[in-house]
Amino acid sequence: MTTSLHLICTTVFNQSLGALGAILTKAQAHATARKIDPDALLHARLYPDMFALMRQVQIACDFAKGVSARLAGVEVPVFEDGEKTFADLQARVARTLAFIATLTPQQFEGSEMREIVTQAGSPREKRFLGQSYLLNYGLPQFYFHVTTAYALLRHNGVELGKKDFIGSY
């Protein structure tokens, strides 16, 4: 029995983005309850050369929609990176989930062997077959940014645990 890339994408991205949205809600409540300027969390970094929370969430959403779109053979939707608040980030997560919900299993048919070409932050192209793109590149990149967002908030005192990271399944 084979598992479709559509099933993997929708299951993983829905669960993890749902968890990320819930984590952002907890972070906003944490800031309000403790009278912390939300910008202190939104712009927090684990290390000076790492992206801040806001960018981590944007990139996680970009990977979820980009990987799904490329495997489905559709145009990757463009989201402007203009978020400034927790509500803006929540809206971005919701837009990403809404886009993924529009993709059908039929669009993913044959995607295991579909050639995917990316230029991740450099002029050099990377070429993958669909299955390798998802499993060896897309999912690790996505999880890196979701995990870093979780770690940033946990490091800054937001009461989070493993159940928050894993989310509902």
Q: Give the helices and strands as they follow along the chain.
A: HHHHEEHH
- Number of DSSP strand runs: 2
Strand order of the largest sheet: 1-2
Helix content class? 55-70%
CATH-assigned homologous superfamily: dinb family like domain
- Domain count: 1
Helix tally?
6
**What would you say the CATH architecture is?**
Up-down Bundle
Strand content: under 5%
Description:
- With 169 residues, the protein is mainly α.
- The protein has a single domain (5-102, 112-166), classed as dinb family like domain (Four Helix Bundle (Hemerythrin (Met), subunit A)).
- 60% of the residues lie in helices and 5% in strands.
- The protein is built from six helices and two strands.
- The chain has a two-stranded antiparallel sheet.
- Helix 1 packs parallel to helix 5.
- The longest helix has 29 residues, at 5-33.
- The two termini are 22 Å apart.
- The model has no long low-confidence stretch (mean pLDDT 95).
Give the topology.
Elements: H1 5-33, H2 38-42, H3 53-72, H4 86-101, E1 115-118, E2 126-129, H5 130-155, H6 162-166
Antiparallel strand pairs: 1-2
Helix pairs in contact: 1-3, 1-4, 1-5, 3-4, 3-5
Key descriptive features of the protein:
169 residues, mainly alpha, Four Helix Bundle (Hemerythrin (Met), subunit A), two-stranded antiparallel ribbon
How would you summarize what this structure contains?
The chain is mostly helical and 169 residues long. Helices cover 60% and strands 5% of the residues. Strands 1-2 form a two-stranded antiparallel ribbon.
